[in-house]
Structure formats: C-alpha cells, structure tokens
Specification:
Blueprint (H helix, E strand, L loop, with lengths): L13 H4 L4 H11 L13 E6 L11 H14 L3 E6 L13 H17 L4 E6 L4 H12 L3 E5 L6 E3 L2 E3 L3 H11 L5 H10 L12 H12 L14 H20 L3 H4 L2 H13 L5 H12 L6 H8 L16 H7 L1 H9 L15 H4 L24 E4 L8 E4 L9 E9 L2 H7 L12 E4 L20 H4 L7 E4 L11 E3 L19 E5 L4 E4 L3 H10 L10 H9 L29
Parallel strand pairs: 1-2, 1-3, 3-4, 9-10, 10-11, 11-12
Antiparallel strand pairs: 5-6, 7-8, 8-12, 9-13, 13-14
C-alpha cells in the first residue's frame, strides 16, 4: 500500500518567492544577499533543517556536522535547504528539568515552521526532550516533516568494565555513598562514562524516543540505533535530505502518518524494548496534537500481549551499539510481526511491513525472538487505585520482583528539599519494608515534573545491603534508571490529588499484577485531611513559568498546554504572505 499524498496546486514556498510584487522582491532580494541566485530557491522545494544543536546540550553537539549531510541530500534531490536554530534542551545541564521547557521548544518549532517558507522540514534531535518537543511542534504545523536523531554514543569503558551513561551513574553513586568505592575510582569513572558524541547508549529516554519515532514511521528505517560516530549516521542523514524533498512534492504530511495505528505500533515497540516510562507522557501529548484519542488504558491493554525482546540496559545487559549490530529496530519490529499494524504508512511512502520485510535479527542474545522473549509481557504497567485515580505507571521490567506485591508504611517527604535534607539522617524511621513517598514533584509542583522518581535510598540501608525500596511519587524517572518506582501519580499532589494527603506511617499497597496502588486509610480520615489541605504557593509569578503553571495539564494527559490541543495544520492561513 502506498501513501496517498494530499493535493497541492503549488509548493508552499511559491507564496514567498514566485510573485513580481513587493513581497516577492523583498523575499528574493534578501536571500540573494546570501550569495544565492534566484533559481537556487525559486521553484524548488524549500527544505528547512530544524537544528537543536547547542554546545550546552552535549548529546546534540555533533548535529551541526549532521546538518551538512542533510543539506547534501536535499541539494542532490533538487531541493533548496535552509538550516535554522531552535532552542535546545540539555538533560544533563538544564535545571530544574528539561520537561519544564518541552512545550516551549514545541512552540518554537511549530511557529518557525509555520512562519517560514518551508515545503518540508527535517528535524535534528537527540537529547531526551528535544525529540518529542520537535515532533510535537512539527505535527501541529503539519508541513511535510521527518526526523533524524543524533544516535547513541559508543559504549563506555573503565578498564575492562563496560559502562552505561546514565544507568551506571545511579549504581556508582550508591556505591560511593555506601563506601564501596573511593573518590579516585569515582573520578576515573567520570572520565570514561560518556565516551563519544551522542546520547546515552542504554535504553534511556533518548534511545527510547528515537525508537518510538521510528516505530511511528517518522524516520527512515534503522535510524534509531546507528551510533552517533558511525558513518551510517551521515548516510541516513543524507538519505533523509533526499526523501524529504520528495515528500514535499508528494505533500506527505504528519497527519497522514500519525494515525491511531501508528501510535499503537509505537506503544508496542516501547513495551518490547522495555523503554522509558517518559515515552508514555510524550506519546499522550503527541496524540492530542493530531487529534488521536489515546489514553493510559491503551498502554496497559497492549502491555498484556507485548513481549520484552530487547536485552538492553537498564532492563537487560547490552547496549545500543550491540542493538545496532544485531539489526536495530527493524529487526525487533520484524520479530513483533503480526502484533504490529503492518499497513501503517511511513515517511518512506511505504508501509511498516514493507520497510521491515528484509530486516534480519543477527543476534538473538540482544534481540530475543517472540517465541523466546525476555519477558512474556511489556515492561511498563499502568496502575489504578485510590492513591492514583487518574493513573500511575511503573516500569515492571526495571523493578525488583519481590517488591511487585508489597505493603509497607509510608515515609513521606513533602518536597525535594525535604528529601535531600533527611534521607541520610541516621534517625530516619525507615527499614527495608518502608515505602518512600515524594510529593510536589509533578507538572505544577516541582515545577516541571523532574526526574526525581528514583528517590535515593537511605545511606544506612545501603550500608546494610538493601538495594531497592518501593518508591511512590508524582515525578518522572530517567529512562536510564531502575528500581521499584511508581511514577506519574495523577492527579499530582500540587493539584490536590490523594498523594497530597499521605502521612508518615500510612500503609500503602502495591500489587502490580492487579494493577493496584492503594492508600489504606479510612475514607473519613481522608475527608478530614482534605479539608485541612491548602494549595501550594505558585513557583512563578511572571514569564514563561507563569504561562506554564496556568496551562499545563496533568501527566495522564501528556503534560502539554491546554491551548495547544487540536488537529494538525490549524490556523495556518494567517502565516502565509499576502500579495500586494
């Protein structure tokens, strides 16, 4: 089945460059000031290269060079490339969290695409939130678009020990706090853990979102796993430049690709790779941008029949580099076979089934087969109960099996400052049966919903050999992290959700098989507590922060802004130039 492109009388860019009126003269004249003759851009598909390069975003540092490969592809296909910058979100460096700025970046991308003379756009992303932000913006603008991610870095090494950026940060941090390693070894690990250009080489959020975007059909096949420094990354970038030029002529837009079937494919893939729980929020937000009815229930229903196939840390033992050598995402998707909607259209103009028809699984130790999976059902589970009326999630594949059914007394931290000031207090009333609870870490509360959900374990328990506890919060968790962490509790505590009412000593029950998270406190007592509860003082009184607090939705709705919902391509006409 081939794509059915929209009908277009002329290229969108012709509204800028074709006329012999005042606008035409101005538009052409200023581009000529760059040393460009008129026939370089007038009459050719004009392709925007949306670049999230930044020296402050280490994962995306190499995207300037990657943009040159895209340009070459556009030029050889007869198009005209124009590279332009957008804000960049640095997961390692940006505080309090890049999630606070995901929607801002999405708005930046959308408005640039709408207001400039692009017939098609290539999105260059890499770090965790840059990928969903760019895709959300492009989907809303609904100009032909496709993505090229920056790729994972090479596997880290400390002597003969393999290291995973992100994942081993948490492991060795606990080792340092517990006194199992010293500062010399800690600093040696620091030199080796991030080995090359690229994003984390484990199945963190960056690798997860690259895989999810490929599963949606918004990249060329194989894009997700090619290492950042492999020459294949440049080749797929150049091929993408050629393909977007054709897509602009075909008028193959995001709304033709981002269908309900595409989202179900992406959910299946996220479950099969044991991907980051962050993908749940980003997919919910993206679906609402294109008018697809998607909720948490879809994730849970598909989880029951989707096996875990990718043996990649933090759930497995290998790395993205190994995943690439084993055949990458096309090989994993072919293993999923009939579980996918094979007829879903992609940016190639072909279906998913056509794209993966020749894929080969070269290493079943990295990509398990469907008849011998790593786990029979998906890595992410949706929970319900009186503590999370609108849902919560847990990454079962990264949790401790003995804690998946658990009752324990709550040790409550009112916010992150409270947590960090008391977690290592030797007098903290906590043991291996306790449930750590963090409030004020959701979209409004933190604000921005930081990756605080993997609460640190108390030092006194680490020194006793305890390596996991049940942890409950309205926060997110890094895709590189692990542990029995219940996340995205909705409604959040700052919005008056039941999490706000939890007190020290309350009994919390977690039963993952029953999809249950419950606060075992009498209803009358909860009513009394609610009457005493007062909303927190807003963190911001001006600027983007105020806009964010006034319009951000809850985690189960994707944490997008309420005024950005709606079908793709709305309100496009005001952005087009008018003739004189």
């Amino acid at each position: 089945m081939k794509a059915e492109p929209g009908s277009r009388q002329e290229l969108r860019s012709r509204r800028w460059f074709a006329g012999d009126d005042l606008n035409g003269l101005i538009h052409r004249g200023w581009l000529k000031s760059e040393g460009l003759p008129r026939d370089a851009f007038d009459g050719r598909p004009v392709i925007g290269i949306c670049n999230s390069w930044s020296e402050a975003t280490p994962c995306n540092y190499h995207l300037r060079a990657l943009a040159d490969h895209v340009k070459r592809g556009v030029l050889t296909a007869g198009g005209f490339p124009l590279e332009f910058p957008v804000i960049s979100l640095s997961e390692p460096l940006m505080k309090p969290t890049t999630m606070l700025f995901r929607n801002l970046m999405a708005m930046d991308v959308e408005e640039c695409i709408r207001s400039l003379p692009f017939d098609g756009v290539v999105l260059l992303s890499g770090c965790d939130k840059t990928t969903p932000a760019m895709l959300m913006g492009a989907a809303s603008a609904d100009v032909p678009a496709m993505m090229v991610t920056g790729g994972p870095m090479l596997t880290g090494r400390y002597g003969t020990t393999e290291l995973g950026s992100g994942t081993d940060v948490w492991k060795y941090s606990d080792d340092l706090r517990a006194g199992r390693i010293g500062l010399d070894e800690w600093r040696g690990i620091e030199d080796c853990i991030s080995r090359s250009n690229g994003h984390c080489m484990v199945m963190g959020t960056a690798s997860t979102m690259a895989s999810v975007v490929e599963a949606l059909g918004m990249t060329l096949p194989g894009n997700a796993a090619i290492p950042a420094v492999d020459s294949g990354r440049g080749r797929i970038a150049e091929s993408s430049g050629r393909r977007i030029t054709a897509m602009a002529i075909e008028d193959l837009r995001p709304r033709h690709i981002l269908t309900r079937q595409a989202f179900e494919n992406a959910i299946r893939v996220n479950l099969a790779i044991a991907g980051s729980t962050n993908a749940v929020i980003h997919l919910l937000a993206l679906a609402r941008r294109v008018g697809v009815d998607l909720d948490l229930q879809a994730f849970d229903e598909l989880s029951e029949s989707t096996p875990v196939l990718a043996n990649i840390r933090p759930t497995g033992t290998r790395y993205m580099e190994d995943f690439y050598y084993a055949g990458g995402l096309p090989a994993l998707m072919r293993e999923l076979g009939p579980l996918l909607h094979g007829q879903a259209i992609t940016v190639t103009g072909k279906t998913i089934a056509e794209n993966i028809s020749t894929a080969v699984n070269r290493d079943p130790n990295v990509i398990a087969t469907r008849d011998k999976p790593l786990a029979a059902d998906g890595g992410t589970v949706v929970l319900r109960g009186n503590l999370c009326p609108d849902g919560a999630v847990i990454k079962r594949s990264a949790a401790s099996p003995h804690l998946l059914k658990h009752r324990g007394k709550a040790v409550v931290f009112e916010n992150k400052h409270d947590l960090m000031s008391r977690i290592d207090d030797p007098n903290l009333d906590v043991d291996e049966t306790s449930v750590l609870v963090l409030k004020m870490a959701g979209p409004r509360g933190a604000p921005g919903m930081p990756e605080w959900g993997q609460l640190p374990l108390p030092e006194k328990l680490l020194r006793r050999g305890v390596n996991d506890l049940v942890r409950v919060s309205d926060a997110r968790m890094s895709g590189t992290a692990y542990g029995t962490c219940v996340l995205h509790v909705s409604p959040e505590s700052a919005a008056g959700g039941p999490l706000a009412l939890v007190r020290d000593g309350d009994v919390i029950e977690l039963d993952v098989d029953r999809r249950l998270l419950s606060l075992l406190v009498p209803e009358a007592e909860l009513v009394r507590r609610r009457a005493e509860w007062r909303p927190p003082t807003p963190a911001f009184s001006r600027g983007y922060g105020r806009l964010y607090l006034e319009h951000v939705m809850q985690a189960n709705e994707g944490a997008d802004f309420d005024f950005l919902l709606g079908g793709p391509g709305q309100d496009l006409e005001p952005y087009l130039p008018t003739s004189h």
